[in-house]
Amino acid sequence: MENQSSPLPELPGHIPQDSAEFRTVLNATEDFGAVPQVAERKENHTLTVKETARMFEAAGVARTERSVINWCQPNRQGIPRLDSYYDPNERKYYITPQSVEAVIQEEIQRASKSSEPSTSESFGTVVAHVKHPGNANAADEKRLKELEREIFDLQITNRGKDYLIGELNKERNRFFDQLLDANRTVGRLETKLQRLEEPKV
């Protein structure tokens, strides 16, 4: 009698069921090529760190080159503030003008918010002026005197400069006159020398 527990002979080209399930499992390395490379230089990565710092300065929110470099590097969340590319061969960052403009606008807004006085401060200053008008007048007079003194000092400085410039102009004119006289004298002497050297006939 045949043994029913014996396995059936495998047919050529037949794949067991277990290995078929194994092939259906996704291989994690297959998707690796689809991941975009973060450190790729794009066409608009054109600005250097120095040029970027100059743009900030021109916009009235000057920042150091060190700050620009820090903004090119990822923060705690892994996101850089400026869209940049680090070239390992040149050891430089290249930054997109669009990201620079966006950060400049952010910095301008931040600066304008910090310079605006709060409503409570302005209210307090108005109340102080109303309560003590004598103190305000005394402070204004003191400031006015300081400004008058500064204007007087500047007038003296300007007069001194004008005098010095006038003296330098006079000295320069004298020097040119002496130079012209010396040139004329040299010309006369050269003429006399030529006459002396001419052979007598």
Written account of the structure:
The protein is mainly α. Among the domains are: 49-116, no CATH class; 133-196. 61% of the residues lie in helices and 4% in strands. The protein is built from six helices and two strands; from the N terminus they run H-H-H-E-E-H-H-H. A two-stranded antiparallel ribbon has the order 1-2. Strand 1 (84-87) and strand 2 form a beta hairpin. The chain is flat and about 100 Å long. The termini are far apart.
Strand content: under 5%
* DSSP helix fraction: 55-70%
pLDDT averaged residue by residue: 76
Give me the number of helical elements: 6
The dominant shape is flat
Q: How far from one another are the termini?
A: 160 Å
How many strand units? 2
Q: What would you report as the Rg, rounded to the nearest angstrom?
A: 43 Å
What is the N-to-C succession of helices and strands? HHHEEHHH
Structural class: mainly alpha
Biggest sheet, in brief? 2 strands, antiparallel
| Biggest sheet, spatial arrangement of strands | 1-2
Query: Which ranges are low-confidence, i.e. pLDDT below 50, for 5 or more consecutive residues?
Result: 28-38, 119-132
Give a short synopsis of this structure.
This protein is mostly helical and 201 residues long. 61% of the residues lie in helices and 4% in strands. It is flat.
